[in-house]
Amino acid sequence: MIPKTMKAVILSEPTPAEQVRLTTVSVPQIRSGWVLVHVKAFGLNHSEQILRLNEIRADYINKPIIPGIECAGEIADPSDSHFKKGEKVVALMGGMGRSFHGSYAEYALLPADHVFSVQSDLSWTEMAAIPETYFTAWGSLFECLHLKKEDTLLVRGGTCALGYAAIQLAKAMGCHVIATTHRESKMVLLRDADEAVLDTGTLAGTLRGVTKALELVGPKTLRDTLKCVEAGGIVCNTGILGGVYALDGFDPIKEIPNGVYLTGFFSNYPTQKIMEDIFSFLVNYQLKPEVGAVYSFEDIAQALSDMDHHRVDGKIVVKI
Fold first, then answer.
1. Around Cβ 106, how many Cβ atoms within 10 Å?
2. Cβ neighbours around 266 below 10 Å, total
3. Model-level pTM?
4. Which of 220, 271, 272, 289 would disulfide-bridge 129, Cβ 3.0–4.6 Å?
5. Cα–Cα distance for residue pair 144/135, rounded to 1 Å
6. For residues 301 and 17, is the Cβ–Cβ distance under 8 A?
């Protein structure tokens, strides 16, 4: 039986992690085209940190808002969708946690077209580490970079959850992977890459044979990354870990080397087929997602604080 109330995180203004609290609210009422998901676990993401600390001020955020852009769980009420009650699903993006309430809750009312059926023997915490992180890695590597096994891939900013996922997928394919971190203490965390490189901010001229580059630091180092790939190579800008969100005065004619291609990946358009492909790939290559730490829902403030202060290496998952 679906309860009348639930625990959730509600945000209305910029909120430091230490001030986040669980609140008792009503369970959302079902409506046509939407499904009610009983959330079992959800991953934490950098974009949720941006929302909580600053973006919450924006007029386009539907406040008060329950944050959270992804989750794993079961269908509690399928409404008029094709889903069945109790069906195992993951959900991500499409406005979750910004345009409508997201996953930092025991139940989430979500648009049916951004909820995806999953056949998996993974635990809820492992499943919750996959949707946004692996969809973003998958789209960046295969849709944007057209990654092939003969490629040498540069992952700039490799010690984040997305970086670990990209390294894991590329290595499974047989690619040669070069991964970077700007902290010497984190070099050991890049052990799954073929080469670990300390990022000084200027890598151009120090690397050889790079055919594809996944830029996770973002505009802060993008100009330099464009100079790191060979002619005919592709750079995909996906992350903004460097805290710079746009290129000021960027001149594409002069700053994109001749014969180099620049693209970007925006993870707002997942599909059932792609999610099935990701889970099948993990099974076929006997891979499991990298989970850095698991917290109970009651410890959400600590989980968010540890994310904000970079205390966890890998994906943080909150289990309900």
1. 21
2. 10
3. 0.95
4. 289
5. 12
6. yes
